[in-house]
Specification:
It contains 10 helices and 7 strands. It is α/β, with parallel strands linked by helices and 290 residues long. Helix 5 links the parallel strand 5 and strand 6. The mean pLDDT is 94.
């Protein structure tokens, strides 16, 4: 029997690549997005390649939309075997300067949206004692970098709740995984909210400059959405499942670097440094930006 997968945030980037990759590997895929008209190219590829892929409307922040999407998928296919929670938004800025509304918006999508979808599919998976949930977070859910408070906070929250979930549903035969990319070439870098840009006289502007330098450097040779999609498929099919999967050399090296130093040493990286000094400090820690 063909497994049915529902992928959120599938209009572009990681979600788009994941929907296609799963369909090409035998899954019946529901590729979901807020505006289904954005899925025309997906529809065309599915038709051309004769893939089992359907585009459905879904706003993970809207309870009625989420319920309607699940109901439609189950009506068409009978069940949902795989949920890939990929829909997400960026959010940065210093803790002091980021409006609470921005932080709420980031958490609403990145945390509560994923939890909403998870709660909707779990009863069926638990009853059948079969299913998989993959939450796409970020290495930023394990390494807390300044100037990314809202985003980092949301990813840490989802990371922790996913670990709790994995333990809770293990007895029901449900597989849970965290996929944690580093810098991936996706439209998230073009969707930055202007409210997040620090003013020129911000006492925290140096941190925004640092993270901008990090991204700009890594985007010269980033991981691709297809790389993440391949890891997601592996997490679903491996005979030796694990909870966390880092994606990208920068994610792996950043995690290694963070584990080498103490919390106090990490916090001390907040000292004043030029971009050149910051880049040298990253290199000394072994962070891969090539």
């Amino acid at each position: 029997m063909t497994d049915v997968a529902l992928v959120t945030g599938a209009s572009t980037g990681i979600g788009n690549s994941t929907a296609l990759h799963l369909a090409r590997n035998g899954y019946h895929v529901f590729a979901t997005m807020r505006n289904p008209s954005a899925g025309q190219e997906l529809d065309q590829i599915a038709n051309d390649e004769k893939l089992s892929l359907d585009v459905l409307a879904l706003d993970v922040n809207d309870e009625q939309s989420a319920q309607a999407c699940i109901d439609e998928a189950v009506s068409r296919s009978g069940q949902i075997d795989v949920l890939v929670n990929n829909a997400g938004v960026g959010g940065g800025g210093s803790i002091e300067e980021t409006p609470l509304g921005v932080t709420r918006d980031v958490f609403e999508t990145n945390v509560f949206g994923a939890l909403r979808m998870t709660q909707l599919v779990l009863p069926g998976m638990r009853e059948r004692e079969h299913g998989s949930i993959v939450n796409v977070t970020s290495v930023a859910g394990r390494v807390a970098s300044p100037s990314m408070g809202s985003y980092v906070g949301s990813k840490f929250a989802l990371d922790a709740m996913t670990e709790v979930l994995a333990a809770e549903v293990f007895r029901f035969g449900i597989r849970v995984a965290l996929v944690e990319p580093g810098v991936v070439l996706t439209p998230i870098f073009t969707k930055r909210d202007d409210r997040q840009a620090p003013p020129e006289d911000s006492p925290y502007k140096e941190f925004a400059d640092r993270i901008g330098h990090h991204f700009a450097t890594k985007l010269q040779n980033p991981a691709m959405p297809e790389d993440v999609a391949e890891v997601i498929l592996s997490a679903l099919t491996t005979t030796e499942p694990k909870l966390r999967y880092l994606v990208g050399t920068d994610a792996i090296s950043l995690m290694d670097a963070r584990e080498k130093i103490s919390d106090e040493e990490w916090i001390a990286m907040g000292r004043r440094m030029s971009l050149e000094e910051f880049a040298a400090a990253q290199e000394a820690l072994g962070v891969d930006l090539s």
